[in-house]
């Protein structure tokens, strides 16, 4: 035990009180604070650069510009809301600054991974290993996000309701990341299947089985992405809504400029929720109408057209046939149906013909 009372305890460790006092002494010196901040910034930059090299190797000019813009926008936007509710003392500033910088890092990596994967989807020469390297960045973001949420939950149990705000943003990011993992995970499976199909003989029985499996995967991909994507979007929007309401509750109701901004954000968010629900209902109705209006292609017709969709050129386990004998995925036909007025009239005509024939 020290005579100045800085370190004391039972001889087996340092007590909480001595640790708190040691931190107070360290933070009382401006030089020590400056050195500590410099050390943390250098470690943060080093970790970011190492992870960037591991997952993305090299960023192009547009990606670098987007990272800088996203960093500045995220810090300014979230920082402005935190100023409304966070008490102006050193400990609170350190906690919320760490929260903001860590989540900004996850948000940037999530955005980079999604953009890079979208670009790789359009590349015909992409390999499964190259795709998985970028895809694993999303897995890292989701894992780190879950750990951060766990820490936020533990900390909020021993502190005020203010720290419930720590939980909303990582939860929203988890929903977005999981949706991206679902979409690009299916794409990774399709890339792996495509490479295995290329290595197999075209006329072998195994090749036919692989084509059937690929077509089934494509059909299930559309169904799961459509329905699970809607559910995750609703969870994400509901989480953002809870974040705004929590911020408004902690800030207090007062007719200031800040309250007007919060009200406009809430209004835009509610409008986005209603629009997303309406879009999903219209999509479901359109797909149901197309499914009943057009006949299913037989197995012989799928084999005759090499089991490929005439729009996306993907494998098909189930297809719809138009009067011109072209075969389509139902979802691909839906996207074409939205763009082509002539096809709209043709679908309604076919619906009347097949509907009257069935009656």
From TrEMBL:
Subcellular location: Membrane
Source organism, top-level taxon: Eukaryota
Main subcellular localisation: membrane
GO biological process: positive regulation of plant-type hypersensitive response; protein ubiquitination; ubiquitin-dependent protein catabolic process
Gene Ontology cellular component terms for the protein in this record: cytosol; plasma membrane; ubiquitin ligase complex
Gene Ontology molecular functions: ubiquitin protein ligase activity; zinc ion binding
Stated name of the protein: RING-type domain-containing protein
Species assigned in the record: Ensete ventricosum (Abyssinian banana)
């Amino acid at each position: 035990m020290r005579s100045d009372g800085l370190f004391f305890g039972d001889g087996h460790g340092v007590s909480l009180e001595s640790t708190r006092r040691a931190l107070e002494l360290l933070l009382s010196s401006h030089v020590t604070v400056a050195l500590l901040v410099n050390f943390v910034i250098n470690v943060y930059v080093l970790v970011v650069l190492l992870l960037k090299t591991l997952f993305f190797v090299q960023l192009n000019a547009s990606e670098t510009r987007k990272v800088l813009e996203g960093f500045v926008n995220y810090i300014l936007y979230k920082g402005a809301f935190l100023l409304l509710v966070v008490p102006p003392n050193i400990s609170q500033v350190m906690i919320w600054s760490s929260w903001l910088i860590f989540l900004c890092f996850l948000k940037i990596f999530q955005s980079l991974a999604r953009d890079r994967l979208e670009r790789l989807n359009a590349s015909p020469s992409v390999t499964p290993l190259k795709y998985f390297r970028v895809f694993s960045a999303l897995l890292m973001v989701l894992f780190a996000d879950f750990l951060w949420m766990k820490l936020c939950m533990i900390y909020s149990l021993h502190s005020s309701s203010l720290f419930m705000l720590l939980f909303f943003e990582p939860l929203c990011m988890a929903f977005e990341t999981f949706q991206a993992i679902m979409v690009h995970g299916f794409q990774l499976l399709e890339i792996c299947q495509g490479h295995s199909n290329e290595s197999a003989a075209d006329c072998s029985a195994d090749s036919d089985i692989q084509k059937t499996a690929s077509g089934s995967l494509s059909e299930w991909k559309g169904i799961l992405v459509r329905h699970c994507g809607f559910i995750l979007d609703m969870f994400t929007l509901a989480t953002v809504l809870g974040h705004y309401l929590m911020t408004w509750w902690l800030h207090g109701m007062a007719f200031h400029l800040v309250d007007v901004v919060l009200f406009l954000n809430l209004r835009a968010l509610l409008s986005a929720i209603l629009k997303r629900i309406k879009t999903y209902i219209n999509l479901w109705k359109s797909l149901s109408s197309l499914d009943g209006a057009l006949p299913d292609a037989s197995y012989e017709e799928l084999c005759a057209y090499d089991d490929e969709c005439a729009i996306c050129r993907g494998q098909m386990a189930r297809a719809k046939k138009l009067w011109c004998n072209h075969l389509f995925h139902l979802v691909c036909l839906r996207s074409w149906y939205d763009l082509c007025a002539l096809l709209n009239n043709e679908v309604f005509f076919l619906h009347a013909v097949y509907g009257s024939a069935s009656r």
